[in-house]
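Structure ticket #2291
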Amino acid sequence: MGEWIRSCLDILLIVMVGIGLYQAMRLIKHLAGLRQGRVEMERFVHEFNATVIRAEAGIKGLRQAARDSGDDLEKLVEKALAVRDELQFIVESADQIAERLSHSASMMARSEKRPEAAAPTPAPEAAKPVAKPASEPRPAPSDAPSTASRAEKELLQALQKLS
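Resolution: structure written out below.
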């Protein structure tokens, strides 16, 4: 009976070794899968890192472009404000000139409407103001600054040609 027990124990030991080998092979397959997953994960991390670096460079470029655009926009706004102020001055000057022209036109219209019989007696030659010919340019108004812009000068010349 001793041999029979020994044979059973040997068979049991062989079965256990077979099961151990089977489990070891399964474990080896799983480890190979984990190694493959690790390699893929490393590749993914490297690609992700490269993408993050490109994104950071893009963000820096966008920030710089925004700063440049902001500076350009600020300069344009400053120029626009200067042009607005100059245009406002031109409009005010044109309004003053238009008021003077209107006043002059109404004075001329009044003098033309006066009847000839009711006209006052002519003044002596020395007291009469000398009328300037229409072709001579009028002097600039005293309240206008001496440094007029080109547009103001052109406007004054055009108004002088009309009168």
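Closing remark: The two ends are 146 Å apart (CA to CA).
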